[in-house]
Design goal:
Layout (H helix, E strand, L loop, with lengths): L1 H47 L3 H13 L5 H24 L5 H22 L9 H4 L3 H13 L5 H24 L5 H25 L4 H8 L4 H6 L3 H7 L9 H5 L6 H7 L10 H5 L4
Helix pairs in contact: 2-3, 2-6, 3-4, 3-7, 6-7, 7-8, 8-9
InterPro entries: DUF305_CopM-like, Ferritin-like
Protein name: DUF305 domain-containing protein
Pfam families: DUF305 (PF03713)
Length: about 290
């Protein structure tokens, strides 16, 4: 009887230990997800090198920027997007980049700074519309992930590859805005931004193939910073356009004074009335 009791107690203790082990395993497994996410983020930051912090900040601020409609969301998010390019360009200039990478960074700072000024002229205040802001989330997430993963043989190539994904993200976001009914001057600005960013993509891809920057610019049609700075913004063009003069309507034309035929007839002298009596006329006196 004592042997049975001891055996039963042993079984119970073994089961208890197994349960504790299982619970501990579950607790560890439950902590694995955030740990793996943290490790993945750390790896991405390490791959991004000196650009990691700027990329994370740009992504957070773009997600937080919310406008009053689809177009205003594009504006506010694109302003942050362009500022991110400026921040990354300033970073690479402190990393002893190649001549072409340094030139590209300097051009980016000037051009993106000018476009930020153009975009700010079109910003309007209004109640935030989170629903339309969500339209841009997939494009922004895709850009962020690809930028963080992009790397090269040195800091210059890494900068080029990150900027390539950065430009592609701007094109994707512009496509979202254009597909969702943005009109007027803002649509013109979006089309201009999209076209400029596509040219930057073509130039960057040519540089990654080994083309000198000057040749890559000529092939892709990218404007220099001086040319871009001198180019008027769509908002300025709209303000400068002369207003059409109103045409005269039929009602306006009929209201013009006309010469009165009645007045003219009255102005002419009337023939003198005859006062000759019949007998005088017969005698030849009148």
């Amino acid at each position: 009887m004592n042997k049975v009791t001891r055996f039963t107690a042993l079984l119970m203790a073994t089961a208890a230990l197994a349960a504790c082990g299982s619970q501990a395993d579950n607790q560890v497994a439950g902590n694995d997800a955030p740990m793996e996410a943290s490790m993945a983020e750390g790896n991405s930051m390490q791959m991004s090198g000196p650009f990691g912090e700027a990329e994370m900040r740009m992504d957070e601020q773009m997600m937080a920027a919310v406008g009053s409609d689809v177009g205003q969301n594009w504006l506010k998010k694109m302003i942050v997007h362009h500022q991110g390019a400026i921040d990354m360009s300033r970073i690479v200039l402190d990393q002893n980049p190649s001549t072409d990478a340094a030139k590209m960074a300097q051009e980016t700072i000037t051009k993106q700074g000018k476009e930020i000024e153009d975009l700010q002229k079109l910003v309007q205040n209004g109640a935030p519309d989170q629903r339309s802001a969500e339209l841009y989330r997939p494009a922004m997430m895709d850009m962020h992930q690809k930028m963080m993963a992009a790397s090269g043989a040195d800091v210059s190539e890494t900068f080029l590859r990150k900027m390539l994904e950065h430009h592609k993200g701007a094109v994707a976001m512009s496509d979202v805005a254009l597909a969702n009914g943005v009109t007027g001057t803002l649509r013109t600005q979006i089309q201009k931004t999209r076209a400029d960013q596509q040219k930057e993509i073509d130039m960057t891809e040519a540089m990654l193939r080994g083309e000198p920057m000057q040749s890559a610019m000529q092939q892709s049609g990218v404007k220099t910073a001086a040319q871009a700075k001198a180019e008027p913004a769509p908002a300025d063009t709209a303000k400068a356009a002369p207003k059409a003069q109103p045409k005269a309507t039929p009602a306006a034309r009929t209201s013009e004074p006309k010469a009165s035929t009645t007045a003219t007839a009255k102005a002419e002298p009337a023939p003198a009335a005859s006062t000759c009596l019949p007998e005088h006329r017969a005698a030849g006196h009148c």
